[in-house]
UniProtKB/TrEMBL annotation, chains A, B, C, D:
<keyword id="KW-0413">Isomerase</keyword>
<keyword id="KW-0479">Metal-binding</keyword>
<dbReference type="GO" id="GO:0016853">
    <property type="term" value="F:isomerase activity"/>
</dbReference>
<protein>
    <submittedName>
        <fullName>Sugar isomerase</fullName>
    </submittedName>
</protein>
<dbReference type="InterPro" id="IPR036237">
    <property type="entry name" value="Xyl_isomerase-like_sf"/>
</dbReference>
<keyword id="KW-0464">Manganese</keyword>
<dbReference type="GO" id="GO:0046872">
    <property type="term" value="F:metal ion binding"/>
</dbReference>
<dbReference type="InterPro" id="IPR050337">
    <property type="entry name" value="L-rhamnose_isomerase"/>
</dbReference>
Length: 424, 424, 424, 424
């Protein structure tokens, strides 16, 4: 579907008075509003191609309707999101599902939606129909060199697709691990995985990054071969300067202090990027900010502090991506909610009075340090985020407009009620 | 496939000398060997029909071969397990996948394998192709009375199938819950679920039990409407004397003291039965005893103590069933391992010197109480369990014989390498 | 110390312009401001006498200064908090530390501070110097009837002290449990504890409540005899209509859905009250709202919904109390922060559009239900809470005024730098 | 007290027949018995001086009797343990509590008990009475350079004490961290801690090791500055080749795979040693093997495999120490139980058929790999451990003999019933 070119402008006009009243109150009270708005405009969060359809669990999947049936339709969906919020200006592809048949056409399509190609993602956690050897017992860790080679070749193949489209990073998430004590020689599995990653690393273009994602458990339920930030850091350090750790918020043991991990990795120069989502129990892949919004804010608080300390560009130095699964919501609505929550956390982190915070810390004034963070978090920054969207050409309230325009109904009309997005 | 009638006897003969040497040492040292062996012979663990094929996760499924393609083949598989270990003498069916076309034929088949029909299981966590209304937002909890009625009718239908086969219990596991704060009115969801269960309860035959299974999370990732033993107990108490709580070992929050829960439920007369498995992180559905064998022993320690205190028959008063998922092992091998682990835990629990334990407790002699439990757990009871199998007509080492007979290869020959068990 | 009677008025005058600007924006945008302010004025949170001094861990305690040395000084501290925030109008005493020598004098003192006496708390988790029998192996669960009787008598004694002061509830938190498998016969421990509680229940005045608090772990590290809401509910149900479950936010296993527990208990008419605090790992006893403010809001969301559904008075139907430990902050500052966080969560819960929420739920509109809750949570309700304080005679910003008045320095001057509050 | 020199020999004689019957069965069945016995004889586990008295929690402490009142009495207690089990031949001192007044006398005393001095432990998690600056807000991480210097000096002082006694390692466990979001600048705290450790490292004698212990939480409840193995590894790597990570089994988040961590650290050459204990919820400091004995075995399985792969001496390459807290048991009984459990796990790990295990792994034979580990774990190796003790001059059943000799009663007689061990 195509958004009516005037839809956003008309909608914003209808909301403008209320918005300006809230915003004017804001700009009156807070001196830093303007630079925050400018940073928000620059800040883009990539949408993964697999998050555009309804997700599921091992217990089943309850399909929605109007899901994208092709790479082109996935790009149309992200283009639509980006038109609405002007903050989703990149798509992250998943190979083998998103292999273009015509690279130039796809690049042209991306340009028409103002979309960049974010990190490309390989897949060795499933067997594909045409695949020669099985990943049942792992891929880069496999005891059989032929299976490892197949997985290495696949990753290099993914790099090549990404190069052709203008991506600059490969994300490697490995489900490799074991389900039972005894199954794996941890030492050897580590060594084989490192060697395999080394071959992939060697095939990286000069200006690319390799993101090594870690995960504590699932789908292996005893050990994961890249199981925590410490392991990922070890791999990335041994691989070289182009290798980094990628943090998925749902990939930790219960009660982990993720913001501290983020701070350490950033300080070591080894933080590569994020998969945003939220969770209560495991890798629940829920909407960002829907369960623990304060944690999301605290993570951004470390990011802003750490990136500024290293003179890093907020928008471009790290990879920002959503990784979520939408079991009970319209995927596009869910993604709009996630992006909004991420923007709010970022805006609140920008609002923190860092000088006062450091002074409180130097004085061991714990209550005051808490007050400073809470003051930022308790502030209603929604008008700022809406203003950033408005200035960038997006909708003041993307979700409201999405509903007003009956987007999902139109998509169902175009694509059918029983479609299943590829790659799920 | 059919086991060669002499295969077990021949195998046992070949192992007999070593077995008897171990056993004689045992019976020489421990006075209680004989009654333990007799109790082990009586103790049967039901196999669920869905555990006979390769399981998977939301990230994929790596098929094995020779999986059962029909109810008849599932029964053959359980029959084979039972022939080997003489401890798997019941099958637990899952409707709609295991609906018999000819009840008498199925009952005859069961008799030929010496199998009973354990609790029947309904399914409202997936939509079936022909299903009118969707369970996407729950079944017995659903806001729409028509969906609830459909789920109620399905459960009553399951009871009818079970009646025709000789089952005596219905297990209701509900995936009902919510994925996001706000989604559900907990109060109303509880009330609707209770009302729905009430209608199912009303349809129970006089001599049946209703097992209300609880689970902390998954597939819903914010709340589960029957989320813990307290909730299940509430439902079961309000429903009436035929309703009981069913404990699945993998359905708890981290660090839960399951054995204490078991003790409380047993003491309240509301423990109905078990789904055995093991896990490290969540509902990992691993082989029983593969991760926390001491916990399994402690659970049986409470069971033996509590059942004896209430004069309950160990073998028949509660429902004993495995619920596991085999992602990387041959399902039949995995089930043989699970049954063995359960038998070992039961045997060790029977070995506990209960009088000495109570004396230590009365004296607050904590170190001694610990010694008494550890003494039982550290004892190698494998000869006892093997002897129980031998006397009952099973194999001394079922897994070893299973491999020696190349059972899986034969099943692949009969059924094919690419089969997928129904109901997965 | 005494607050200068004009201190608050002067301070508020100095802050008034800014406050009114924020408030007027608020009342302009939100129609429900006025009734929320009125409910906030009525809502009082009791302060426990043990939270007025510096807390510690088993690894040590780093004392602050100016801690209260007597019941009178504890009341002065709570009186000061209440003067500042007009929301801490009750004190919860801990026996044996807070036994008055002159009841009338203490009641007069309370009246002078406008303080009520909230639930009284017994203590059987420590041995007192003069105590005859030890609670090393439990109190109400103890195998020795004489120890149980001592603990029962102590609880009845606590009731008598409470009666004399005008309390209306007894909170029983038991550390009873076991540290090792085998130590305890769970069944018998449950029975003994129930019998002991029954004797305490029998001694309750007609208009009193008994709060049975549960806790998952610590200081016993294998089992707790009142370990979860299900257990507490069982005890309270068996005891009778005056017995209720008390929820301490830090007393759960990791990832527990506390708001659902609250909803169930409320719906069963068995929720008695709260101990507010926050935590990341266990019973960390941190400042309310400092770690998971959204969870605190979700709990209040259930409370408001459930209390309204049963026609319960928000302010008086349940017991509201803080239970925290201040290891690195000034206790009074910490308590001011906790009360503020609780008020904010309550105000946000009052702000939820319940009719719209129910409509979204009835329509299975999950995204909308989330939006409705987030809309309330993202709203900056601090002006409302400040206004409620102002109207009630408290300070617009209690913590800021506390610091401006140098309260802690004055207390150190009066009481000394090395005091240790009794009961720690 | 002094053990009657003949007590052990007499006791063993009384038990010999039963022991030899069990052992002969064993040596008949298992070819590897003899080398396992020899390795067990060499394997010594250090006892920390703080574990000889009754422990407690923040909720209180229930004293036992006969606790050691001085360094000399602590050494006598460890000497007694070692006489009984011949496996506790080292003591680990805690400074400032265990500072000798006469080094030569203490060394002579140690020699008389055949005790070595294991790693020495510094203490900066409490303030000592005479201490100038407080560690309330950390020690090596502190914002104030003077506090850091005080903590550095203390650690160097501890090294000097250890040198004088013949220790070869310093264990640094830091409680440094934060209780609230905002309190700490993670980056700067890491840097300050690293710098401080660097100064301590610089003061290490040539042949010493520095053990950097990590802990996930407690006593700080938001962040710990050495919070996980990844952090500890980072510090140790930056410090240099004499710095290692120390693993305390209770210092992890829920569900952590400790054995995998052990394997990775060992493989990186950065595993320094262990603090053995067991736990269900947090740092519960329970008797080793009392909660998760299979996990303890799996850890030893990795240790044996990894040390053999690197040609390391099992007994001397790593630091083996218990760290436990005895709240409800006689400390000496608890320690005897812990040492026994560790020896059993080690013996079972030695029993694993490593060649068969590697073959199963190479064949992806998961069921067989599990069988191989379980076969070792299910074997009753108690006769082997008893035989190792007997040959080394210890008692066949140390705990039984300890009780038979009424050791605790004698200690109470000598030291009094109300003693409190120093350093608790």
């Amino acid at each position: 579907m195509q958004l009516d070119p005037n839809a956003i402008a008309d909608y914003n006009q209808s909301q403008l008075e209320g918005h300006q009243r809230k915003l004017s109150y804001w700009t009156q009270e807070v001196a830093t509003a303007e630079p925050i708005i400018r940073k928000l405009i620059d800040f883009q969060i990539a949408i993964p191609s697999w998050a555009l359809g309804t997700g599921g669990t091992r217990f089943g999947r309850f399909a929605g309707g109007g899901e994208p049936r092709s790479l082109e339709e996935k790009m149309a969906d992200v283009g639509l999101l980006h038109a609405l919020n002007q903050a989703s200006g990149a798509i992250s592809l998943h190979i083998p599902w998103d292999i273009p048949t015509d690279y130039d056409a796809i690049k042209g399509l991306a340009a028409s939606y103002s979309l960049a190609f974010d990190a490309v993602n390989s897949n060795t956690f499933q067997d594909q129909p045409e695949q020669e050897l099985s990943y049942k017992f792992g891929s880069l860790q496999h005891v059989d060199a032929a299976v490892r080679q197949q997985a290495i070749d696949h990753n290099i193949d993914v790099i090549r697709h990404g190069e052709a489209l203008g991506s600059k990073a490969l994300t490697v998430w490995l489900s490799d691990g074991s389900c039972f004590p005894g199954q794996l020689n941890f030492r050897k599995a580590f060594g084989r995985t490192l060697d395999s990653l080394g071959e992939i690393y060697a095939a990286l273009p000069e200006d690319w990054k390799l993101f090594v994602e870690y995960k504590a458990f699932e789908p292996n339920f005893y050990s994961m071969t890249v199981g925590d930030w410490g392991s990922s850091f070890l791999y990335a350090s041994k691989l070289g300067p182009k290798a980094y750790t990628l943090v998925d918020l749902g990939h930790h043991l219960p009660n982990a202090n993720i913001e501290q991990i983020v701070s350490i990795l950033l300080n070591e120069g080894k933080l590569g990027g994020f998969h945003f989502n939220d969770s209560k129990y495991g890798d629940d892949d829920l909407t960002a900010g829907s369960i623990k919004p304060y944690q999301l804010f605290l993570i951004f608080n470390e990011l802003v502090d750490g990136m500024d300390a290293r003179g890093m560009n907020h928008a471009t130095s790290l990879g920002w991506m959503i990784d979520a699964s939408h079991n009970v919501k319209d995927p596009l609505e869910d993604l709009l909610q996630s992006v909004e929550a991420i923007q709010l956390a970022y805006a609140q982190a920008l609002l923190v009075d860092r000088q006062a915070l450091e002074e409180a810390r130097e004085a061991n004034d714990v209550a005051q340090a808490q007050e400073i963070l809470q003051d930022a978090f308790r502030t209603d920054v929604r008008p700022l985020v809406a203003e950033a969207r408005r200035r960038a050409g997006g909708a003041l309230q993307p979700l409201a407009l999405y509903r007003q325009l009956n987007v999902r109904q139109q998509l169902i009309g175009e694509r059918g009620a029983k479609t299943i997005a590829t790659g799920l």
